[in-house]
Amino acid sequence: MKSVAAISLGCDKNRVDTERMLYRISRGGYGISDVSDAEVIIVNTCAFIESAREESIDTILSCAELKKSGKCERLIVTGCLPQRYLSELKAELPEVDAFLGVNDYEGIVEVIDGSDAKPADFDRFEALESCGRLLTTYPHLAYLKIADGCDNKCTFCAIPSIRGPYRSRPIDGLVKEAEGLVEGGVKELVLVAQDVTRYGEDKGSSLIELLAELKELSVEKIRLLYCYPERVSDELIEFISTCDKMAKYIDIPVQHYSAGILKLMNRKTTGEAVESLIAKLHARGIAVRTTLMVGFPGESEEDFAALCEFVKRARPEYAGVFAYSKEEGTAAARLKGHIAKSVKRKRADTLGRICTEVTRDFNKNQVGRTLKVIYEDIDYDKNLFVGRADFQAPDVDGRVYFKAHGALVGKYYDVKITYSDDYDLYGEAIDELTE
Prior knowledge:
Layout: E1 3-8, H1 12-27, E2 31-32, E3 40-45, H2 50-69, E4 74-79, H3 80-92, E5 98-100, H4 108-113, H5 125-128, E6 141-145, E7 147-148, H6 159-163, E8 167-168, H7 171-183, E9 188-192, H8 207-214, E10 221-224, H9 234-242, E11 246-251, H10 259-264, H11 271-283, E12 287-294, H12 301-314, E13 318-323, H13 341-364, E14 370-379, E15 384-388, E16 400-403, E17 412-420, E18 425-434
Parallel strand pairs: 1-2, 1-3, 3-4, 4-5, 6-9, 9-10, 10-11, 11-12, 12-13, 16-18
Antiparallel strand pairs: 7-8, 14-15, 14-17, 15-16, 17-18
Helix pairs in contact: 7-8, 12-13
């Protein structure tokens, strides 16, 4: 039995694609192993921005070295990078034995066997999403990809050209998948798509309808990522704040505050509207994660200063700060007024420090509180258990480090917070197990 390993790069949507490939591979008669022991290595790539492409290429080259010195006999590259740059990759990476785009995962077993993948297209989405998964997360956690593609057409983003138009999965299929995940021990479902709030518009349904179905399952927590601010309705806010199964948390990519920059980005909202939305979310006890972009073409010092002041006023609990990346084929790439990399780096550092200060203040306010924390890991260097509170999403936000006499992965603990730093919280379990 040949052994296969997979490396998933980029977003959680990519992770789900990798999990589906692993399921097909395991059903195809192959074993799953670590990269160091694998005879076949799959790198599922991201091509969203320059840094993601660089990470993908570096990972591919590292795996190619294992074809010289390790057990690896076959190297396969999948995902967004070959979807976008197939001809260039074939010419520049002869070490790679096969490439599969984002719609070709169904043919992964044939490619491992050395055959050509069956051709696929965007219309195959529902079939590609219908197979099982081998989870790569903690056993109590799973991402539920509810749609693929994007129709928002932000001028800086290449995702529509890579992933195609927005396609929602049917509610019944999603509920069936979620049911299976919960029966397998998953307690927290994290809903992901390029735009979760657009869900159902292409099928005559809605995100609220889907959530109403999911909350009837025996799942303990449902979390929303990637919600576009202009589609976060009062109805959705009400649902999140009043449904006991919803994490009091939302990810809304803001990108900027300046009216001129938002217009150039083709964003469908205003800075004032976003600030009002965040205030409304905070008033209902909902924590906010956001994404902020600096150095967009034409961004003046005044635009940047307005963005910084917005963060100081709105105070999102968590924020990711990125410098604009010029993406070939996008409308923004053709704009005038591109900004030097050194200026973009300086602005990203400045805004990053402001965001860190906001998160630090939020964390300080948790000291003395008792939080319900799900245990996930052990930090042996700190000699502490590691978990997450309701307002912390997996991987991207801070964590809770705590002392306890013993802990079981996936169980909840009441943890009294005694200390905080810029990103994380520290405390001690006062109730050993909370069911």
